[in-house]
Amino acid sequence: QVQFVESGGGLVQPGGSLRLSCVASGFFLQYYAVGWFRQAPGKERERVSCIGKSDGSTHYSDSVKGRFTISKDNAKNTVYLQMNSLKPEDTAIYYCYAFSRSRYWGQGTQVTVSS
Question: What does the alpha-carbon distance between residue 27 and residue 68 come to, in Å, rounded to a whole number?
């Protein structure tokens, strides 16, 4: 059974940190481009970060560059998003994805940054 299960969201104060995880089963992340999108109420979906399939290069949106770090552990079949120095404008539902010939999405996890 193919699954892509997210965890790690929650409520955090401004300046705090969270680490999101997305564990794949039924397919192998090493063969996929992976990344994270987020969707905030009333805003367009934004691709936050990604890792290329072929060269493993990482990319970040300008809004998170220098604060977020994406990584992938092929042995654990998991992709991570380490989020530091969180701001209220980072509040959104975060979705992981894996794209190749097939496309898989995580179920989404809520991140709320508020004091």
Answer: 26
- Which SS3 state, helix, strand or coil, does residue 105 take? strand
Amino acid at 22: C
Tokens of 8: 């790690």
Whole-number pLDDT of residue 95? 97
Burial of 2 (0-12, 13-18, 19+ CB in 10 A): exposed
Residue in the block written with tokens 């940054």: 113
Distances (CA, A) of 17 to 29, 91, 105, 109: 25, 12, 23, 15
Give the max Cα distance, the chain.
42
Say what the pLDDT of residue 6 is: 96
Residues of the chain with pLDDT under 70: none
